[in-house]
Amino acid sequence: MAFFSQLDLQEGLQTFFVLQWIPVYIFLGAIPILLIPYFLLFSKFWPLAVLSLAWLAYDWNTHSQGGRRSAWVRNWTLWKYFRNYFPVKLVKTHDLSPKHNYIIANHPHGILSFGVFINFATEATGIARIFPSITPFVGTLERIFWIPIVREYVMSMGVCPVSSSALKYLLTQKGSGNAVVIVVGGAAEALLCRPGASTLFLKQRKGFVKMALQTGAYLVPSYSFGENEVFNQETFPEGTWLRLFQKTFQDTFKKILGLNFCTFHGRGFTRGSWGFLPFNRPITTVVGEPLPIPRIKRPNQKTVDKYHALYISALRKLFDQHKVEYGLPETQELTIT
């Protein structure tokens, strides 16, 4: 009986710590949340709002210059419960030399990019041990750093804006041994994810390749097997009123907030129930072989296209080498749109 109670406790803690992160991830990008500190100026809490906004103004450049990472936060025990919920795993195929800087491009985006978050923004899977002397930074929307207090939280985990200035600073001004992790497909790719799918939004995503050329950072392909399996995404049949409503809502959501809206669901508080928690399915992020990139201050389009094609080739190779081991059929192909 005690054994089952212990299992229930472990699963309950895992569920709780995943649950606390989902609303943070989803709603941080929403404009109303961003405005909360500013609304407080007109309430009895205005001194707190003034202090928070004054600090934000004074400290404005920090999040674009490496932030303030905290080994203590990255090693919180809660991240291990988060990891075990799925579970999440990090696999190295090649060493990353601390003599270079890297752009680790990750695919697919999935709905909430759990694999990237746990593997690179925390120490739950042991990235410091797996890639010694490499400092990872996870790129995300810059608007998150406009929120006082919240910006301190995400900076402590090594999260940075995925802006050109922030990435160039990390790759050229902080020495070597830095690895910027970018989920290249972005929110547009989230609309393509569903269980069993391996479709990437990559054909026209070349900015990360241009950044690698401008900074001389090596490109590293990585793929999170299982990321698309943790939620079901609904796309209603064309011509139905549900599809019309879905498209109208998605277009409005993107126009107002600049984000894509996914109609997804997972499990509830208990396994087998319906809800918005992810399914307990394994996610394995496999990090591939670094692709050496020359440093070219102003690369032309032909050069960008050349290294983009080389990157896609390396990514396909990584996918094909590991797909069967991590749950996909031998016949599964990587589709790039």
UniProtKB/TrEMBL annotation:
Entry keyword set: Acyltransferase, Endoplasmic reticulum, Lipid biosynthesis, Lipid metabolism, Membrane, Transferase, Transmembrane, Transmembrane helix
Protein's GO biological process: monoacylglycerol biosynthetic process
Keyword Calcium carried by entry: no
CDD domains: LPLAT_MGAT-like
GO (cellular component) term, any one: endoplasmic reticulum membrane
Pfam families the UniProt entry points to: DAGAT (PF03982)
Entries under InterPro entries matching the protein: DAGAT
Subcellular location(s) per record: Endoplasmic reticulum membrane
Membrane topology field: Multi-pass membrane protein
Enzyme class: transferase
Principal place of residence: endoplasmic reticulum
Name of the molecule in the record: Acyltransferase
